[in-house]
Specification:
Blueprint: E1 2-5, H1 10-17, E2 20-32, E3 42-57, H2 60-75, H3 83-86, E4 90-104
Length: about 100
């Protein structure tokens, strides 16, 4: 799994100090309401939680591959990235070690 960040900041400081990570994704999130009983309110969702190690990608070709992995997921196509563009981001790969999923309601 790939992520991108700014070139500096707290997140990068934390990653450099400890490359253990946890991630979570939620989809189909809906609030379930009740007209008269507050404790009957709930949420339905599907979620994935995982852990792993995060590593920075510094090789230009691998950075482009990582960015295209992200962009293709959202846009359905490949993109061209210049060296100048790559200087404005940092690309990270998460090596997934554990993963679990849950569906509620």
């Amino acid at each position: 799994m790939f992520i991108h960040t700014a070139t500096k900041g707290k997140k990068i400081e934390f990653i450099k100090a400890n490359n253990n990570v946890c991630f979570e994704f939620d989809i189909d999130v809906k609030t379930i309401t009740h007209d008269t009983i507050g404790c009957k309110w709930s949420t339905s969702y599907k979620s994935v939680i995982g852990t792993g190690k995060i590593y920075e990608i510094t090789n230009e070709k691998e950075m482009i591959d990582g960015l295209n992995h992200i962009m293709k997921h959202y846009s359905g196509k490949e993109w061209k990235f210049t060296s100048k563009m790559l200087q404005k981001v940092r690309i990270w790969k998460i090596q997934i070690e554990t993963i679990t999923g849950k569906r509620s309601n």
